Amino acid sequence: MNTDHQASIHNMNEDIIVIKNLNKWYGNFHVLRDINLTVKKGERIVICGPSGSGKSTTIRCINRLEEFQRGSLTVNGVEMIDDVKNIEAIRKEVGMVFQHFNLFPHLTILENLTLGPIWVQKKPKEEAKAIAMKYLERVKIPDQANKFPGQLSGGQQQRVAIARSLCMSPEIMLFDEPTSALDPEMIKEVLDVMVELADEGMTMLCVTHEMGFAKTVADRVIFMDGGEIVEQNTPDTFFDHPETDRLQLFLSQILQH
Amino acid sequence: MPIKEFKPLPAQPAPVSTTGPIAWLKNNLFSSPFNIVATLLILSGLFLILPGLIDWLFISANWTGTTQDACVDDGACWVFIRAWSQQIFYGSYPSGELWRVNLCLFLLAVVIYLSFILPINLRNKVAIPAFLALPFVCLLFLDGRYLGLEYVNTDYWGGFSLNILLAAASIIIAFPFGFLWALGRRSNLPFAQSVSVICIEFFRGTPVLALFFMGSVMLPLFFPEGVTVDKLLRVWIILILFMSAYMAEVFRSGFQAIPNGQYEAADSIGLGYWQKTFFIIFPQVIKVSMPNILATFIMVFKNTVFLLVIAVPEILQVILGALTNSKWLGGHATEGFLFVALVFWACCYSMSMLSTSIEKKLDTSHKH
Amino acid sequence: MFYQKTIEQIKTDTRPSSAGAKAFYNNPKYRGWIYQSLLLIFLIAFFYSIISNTLSNMAAQGIKSGFGFMTTSAGFDVLMSLIPFETTDSYTKVFIIGILNTILVSIIGVICSTMLGFIFGIAYFSRNWLIKKISIIYVETFRNIPVILQVLFWYTAVLTTLPSTRDSLSIGEAFFLNIRGLYIPRLIDEPKSFVVYIAIVIAIVAIFFLRRWARKRQDLTGEQFPLIWSSLGILLGLPLLALFIAGVPFHFEYPELKGFNFQGGINVIPELMALAIAMSIYTGAFIAEAVRAGIQSVPHGQTEAARSIGLKERKIMSLIIVPQAMRVITPMLNSEYQSLVKNTTIATAIGYPELFTVFAGSALNQVGQAIEMMFMSLAIYFALNMMISFIMNQFNKRVAITTR
Amino acid sequence: MKKLSSIIAGGLAIGLTISAQAGTLEDVKKRGTLSCGVSTGLAGFSQKDEKGVWSGLDVDVCRSVAAAVLGDASKVQYKPLTAKERFTALQSGEIDILSRNTTWTHTRDTSLGLNFAGVIYYDGTGFMVSKKLGVKSATELDGANACIQAGTSTELAIADYFRENKMNYKAVTFDTSDQTRTGFESGRCDFLVSDQSQLYALRIGLKDPSAAVVLPEVISKEPLGPVVRQNDDVWFNIVKWVVNASIEGEFQNVTSANAKDLRKNGNPGQKRLLGSEGDLGEKLGLSADWAYQAITQVGNYSESFERNVGQDSPLKISRGLNAQWNKGGILYSPAMR
């Protein structure tokens, strides 16, 4: 198992996401301006920036929860075009974790997890259950399998959400502010799972304000403002030697707290 | 390393293909094969129906004149509505005394307006008594006997103003009754509870037409010989009971929406049961129930049309009566029904808009 | 001791202030009993006076009482009945005809209004601007106009658009549509026709087992089975097969124009059509609103999450949105169905012979025993409403269990 | 709060009437108005115009009674009633007189605690058919659809008639007479059954009145007249004789125009009727000019008939049975002596 991941880390020169001149408008409002971003396989990227800067929109474009008007986006060699089959193919490659977990409240934890494997991957129920239990163990809550989401704490719910994405064995994981709706002690349990995942060599794009996580885990940190990528750098350079006054200001503000 | 100054990229206009009328058409009408077919079907349907309808309604309609002879064109005979307009809105209420009906409608509007703008502490002291007194003040004005005005028997009241005033007067009086029944249903007193449940379920389970019919044919049997109760009063009683049942259910869900902490807080400052109920719970129940109260009102307001089956001269009854007048035997039923429908639609639609806006204001929960 | 017993009551009923708690009338328990006794006395007095007044009034006015009229001959004709009826038949039969006709129009109304409601409720979320607007206009127009006007409107519309008997619209010589309604052939059984009925039963059982098999198969292999299409195939195919094996053991009674009217076949009268249309459209508007509210109550994040694990749009609807929306929709459906049944009473405006028109209307006018006849009719409406309530509550339980 | 409750008490008192058991005449005099139950709208018989003024043959009975009792034909309180509630309203005392095209039948007269005070219109159930059908007689209507107003005695009359003639029919019932017309016009039914008086009104309402014919058959007797409560003979007599006075007025050639003159210069019969001779009014408990007031203010039977349903109205119903006995009809007032 470990060797697999080692291999993927070594294979980091393969581009898994290529975004070129991505532009998006909400009506006449220009939300994403000429985004250019290339992500290599196994790379871990943290995106930060003030609210409204287009971070979430960017990663939501990657699995087509948002449409874009100009530019191109390629995921694992498949170019995103306006076609249902195409979009389905890309969504199978990409898992996503949301700020508010978005677990299905009418299904048990186990059912939440097996939904994708059964209906999308068309796996037998027992196999799907086995996969689900495997990932529930990985996020350390196998004992909650038969409960409903409403009976779990926020941190547990978010871990279930991560497990739900992993059940689809995606190539890429997107995290959209996964910890910002959580209490401090729960943040840690979620971040731990994410760190573990990173260690296993998963390609990750993570919108977060957890700078500690960025410093220790990220291969690259991206700063966005006003719908464009202002700076991207290794964590060390990013935090210690910001290149622009905008990032400097941002860092000074968030590090004050 | 020198610090660079961040210069934001200038915002560009959205590509023409994604904004502007053509993009709008493409996105909203022709986005998929299914939508293209649907759009074309709907549009052709509209083209088929609308021109004839507009022609009948407006272009070749008859607008001026006072008698049926004025209706010479093929279109709608709006002369019918015009000639009967006073009957339609006021019934046979004497022309010289119409100010009394208008006054009542005005007072109703004022009280409703007051209850929206007054601060909450004044609302309880002023608006609630004003509301409760309103039906009786209107009764005194419309009747006139006790105020030294010309006596107008209830048989002369009618038209759309009757629909409005009757519905309003019923819901106002149904408030305390409905509240009592709701309390009864929640209470732990077994007998009071079962009486409330029976009342509520009986009046909710009975078709309103049957209730009106009972009010007209069966209620007179219930009174001692020689005592007659005015028909309108009987109808009013029936409407109050009917509405109370619905209001009780509205209040019941209102009670459930109030956090337990409120009861505990009221208890903690040592209020008695009735004090607690009226000063703490009641205002809050009203507030959260407002959209449902309006919905109930709309329902009953629409139901006042059913009064025609017992010959109460409400708006549709006036129209039906007008249709049998030997000078208007031309069959203007369509115009009449259309007009009544329009009047009701305008009132009910604006009320449901009001209800939606209140609901939005109340809804402070976050949805994600 | 005492306080422990009544602590429940104190909590919800009265909480005595510390001062004055000694007086017995301030004791919540006694107070409750006092209230209840007053209520009881009031009710006894109320009903006693009503009953005695009614009895003396009825005596003075020569109104009979009792149910003797139920066996006497009605003496008038009823426009439509699901069972054979003669003018000499008794009022009991009129009563039953009324009930059946009420149930008929209610069932049609419930089915059609549910369909309309769901179609327009879902249409609200269409990406097509026109469809969305039409959904809004439909809801806002039809729920804000008194239903009696709508019934009158549809009746006029039906009557004015349909051709006269002689110029009927027809398909072959079997189906006719004219102002007297829709005429369709009636199926007449022959001795061997039971084969076909058995085939239908077998088909239904087969579908039931197919469903179970398909579910098991999916559990085991993950493969999905085209259940809807294969069920439809079985449901149509098996009886058809039986039909030909048994040598088409049916013949049709075709409607035929004889004298003034078509004779034979099944006649769907325009009153029924107009009432069913009006009921469906009116109630459908409320159901559409309920469906819209139900779907809107499901947060958008649910859709996004479902998309992100790659579910197809149709599966998102059936696995994620609908189950969650149903718990909001079901209680509303319950009350809409109940008001639909109650609203059928306005058939009296167009003369569709349901219970209220034919029994509490025509029959009551001839007999004049308002109290008995009204309460009999009301009992039926209560029974129907309770039935709806029961069924919907069962359904609601199923929805609620899977939601939590 | 006290003010509020006094308002409430006052408000409730408005709707409650406790009639003294003394008698209808005293009640009416004390009240100053006559409470009269009429139809909600029946062309020519009781109808309201745009100004809310009631008119019609039924209405004129009430106006005549009000003129005779109170001296003013306008002192009438009209209570529109449905067919279902009409008897209850009279029995409970809500109205003093029911004048609502009500057929005088044995059952109603004997078992409902009511008295019929006379006949103001001899009616009968008749048929209207479309000319296109080419039907000449009701006996050709086997298997046809009938438009009927629900809850009327017509519903029974037609069932009897068809059974008697061994014919079938299908009853399409409507709530109001206007709807029966719509049903007939649209072709929902082949013929329309109603009281003949209504057939004419309904025919006028058709888009093309000449396309329909009224068949000669009259299948039932429907004498229409005012109704009062039983056990109040004073009031019963008043209504009965006011109706008769109107008929006698026509017979004696007393009209609203010449009554004033005839009161002084007429023959003894006219003078007795108009109260300048004899004590007819006194015997009824009314003033001497009771019939004079009724005839000057409302007119005699002929005037009322022609104005409301006859040649001066859109309905143009001919007198037929409702002509005086000496002119081919059966209208006959008992002697005014």
TrEMBL record, chain B:
Transmembrane residue ranges: 34-54, 99-119, 126-142, 162-183, 195-221, 233-251, 293-316, 336-358
Pfam families: BPD_transp_1
CDD domains named among the record's database cross-references: TM_PBP2
Chief localisation class: membrane
Cell compartments where the protein resides: Cell inner membrane; Cell membrane
GO biological process, alphabetically ordered: amino acid transport
Membrane topology (UniProt): Multi-pass membrane protein
Key words, A-Z: Amino-acid transport, Cell membrane, Membrane, Transmembrane, Transmembrane helix, Transport
MF terms in GO: transmembrane transporter activity
One CC-aspect GO term: ATP-binding cassette (ABC) transporter complex
Domain of life assignment: Bacteria
Family: Belongs to the binding-protein-dependent transport system permease family. HisMQ subfamily.
The protein's name: Amino acid ABC transporter permease
Organism the protein comes from: Candidatus Endobugula sertula (Bugula neritina bacterial symbiont)
From TrEMBL, chain D:
Residue spans crossing the bilayer: none
Signal peptide: 1-22
Domain Solute-binding protein family 3/N-terminal: 33-262
GO biological process, one term: amino acid transport
Keywords: Signal, Transport
Domain of life according to the entry: Bacteria
InterPro entries recorded: Bact_solute-bind_prot3 (IPR051455), SBP_3_CS (IPR018313), Solute-binding_3/MltF_N (IPR001638)
SMART domains associated with the record: PBPb
SUPFAM superfamilies to which the protein is assigned, alphabetical: Periplasmic binding protein-like II
Family note: Belongs to the bacterial solute-binding protein 3 family.
PANTHER family in the record: AMINO ACID ABC TRANSPORTER PERMEASE (PTHR30085), AMINO-ACID ABC TRANSPORTER-BINDING PROTEIN YHDW-RELATED (PTHR30085:SF7)
Protein name as catalogued: Amino acid ABC transporter substrate-binding protein
Species whose genome carries this gene: Candidatus Endobugula sertula (Bugula neritina bacterial symbiont)
Native organism taxonomy: Bacteria, Pseudomonadati, Pseudomonadota, Gammaproteobacteria, Cellvibrionales
